[in-house]
Amino acid sequence: MKTIVICGATATGKSDLAVSLAQEIGGEIINADSMQIYKGMDIGTAKLTESERAGIAHHLLDVLQVTEDATVAWYQGLARAAVTEIHDRGKHAIIVGGTGLYIKSILDDLNFPDTDAAVRQKLTEEAKEFGIVQLFQRLELLDPAAAAAIDRQNERRVIRALEVIEITGKPFTANLPREDSSLYPDALQFGLVMDREKIGERVQARVDQMWQMGFVAEVDRLIADGILEATTARRALGYAQIIAMRNGEITEDVAIEETKRATRQYVRRQETWFSRDARINWISPVQPRLETVLNKINSATS
Q: With 70 as the cut, is the pLDDT of residue 111 above it?
């Protein structure tokens, strides 16, 4: 049984391709989007509806409440167990998503340095006193590769990267495994790409559509469910902007434009992350996606 990855930036069409592939080869899908694991975060994460899943089993969707925080180590254990269970049923495991670290945690021998409460507390206090931008600038000096993949406003991830650097004495990215350490050496990885202008247009259209589908009402429900108490979920793209709107910090028009801008920035970080993995077979916009993937799978089998 095969392990197949469909990865790439936001709005490139990964989910639809994964469903079509699963239908063709007899597969089940494992979500590798760090926000689609949350119940109720549907519109803003472009989560496929039940009908769009076309009867294909999806794993690691809707597994946490928005008040709960996920860790990569937690995800790694559940996702690897899902791969084993799918293979045991005689099905192919199709991992799909744009969270690069989640995908890497499944495939590779990725170990996580312990936390140090004292170091983390010190960094947290520095963030409060000097601002997260100053800590991010420190990260840029100590580990430019990590800084390129992390949102400068994501306080949790910036602090974690600096914590690992301080604990290990090595760059955060030095703790990531080499590509020859894969637990699934026969895994086939496919990355979807689009030119920057095209993906920008898709981001614009996607955000507008989310608003039309009731994104604001979705966030209102999640506020009632306690998302404001969360560390991770409340920072998700779009959700953070609508929360700021509800707090009276920005207007709705600004929230929409800020969501588009932040999503475009996230796309660039995703592209930077995935471009470092030489194992990914890239599929251009002009290639027939499903046929290209099927041909690669068949040639790998023969």
A: no
Q: For all residues of the chain together, what is the average pLDDT?
A: 92
Residues 214-248: b if buried by 16+ CB within 10 A, e if exposed: ebbebbeebbebebeebebbbbbbbbbbbbebbee
- Residue 266 identity: Y
Q: Enumerate domains of the chain plus CATH numbers.
A: 3-111+177-301 (3.40.50.300), 117-175 (1.10.20.140)
Write the CA distances from 4 to 1, 79, 83, 271, integer angstroms: 10, 13, 10, 19
CA 202 to chain centre: 18
Task: For residues 242 and 121, give the distance between their C-alpha atoms in angstroms, rounded to a whole number.
Answer: 29
Which residue in 96, 268, 291 sits closest to 194, CA to CA? 268
Q: Can you tell me the distance from the alpha carbon of 135 to that of 197, in angstroms, rounded to the nearest whole number?
A: 32
∠ Cα 242 249 159 (to 5°): 75
Classified as helix, coil or strand, 159 is helix
* Banded model confidence at residue 135, pLDDT cuts 50, 70, 90: very high
Q: What integer is the mean pLDDT of 155-164?
A: 88
Using the 8-state DSSP alphabet, how is residue 12 labeled? S
Query: How far apart, in whole angstroms, are the C-alpha atoms of residue 297 and residue 20?
Result: 14
pTM attached to this predicted model:
0.82
Distance of alpha carbon 154 from alpha carbon 74, whole angstroms: 19
Angle at which helices 132-142 and 117-130 cross, to 10° = 120
Query: What does the pLDDT look like over 33-54, one tens digit per residue?
Result: 999 999 999 999 999 999 999 9
97, 8 contact by CB (below 8 A): no
Per-residue pLDDT tens digits for 173-221: 766 655 555 788 899 999 999 888 899 999 999 999 999 999 999 999 9
pLDDT number for residue 102 = 94
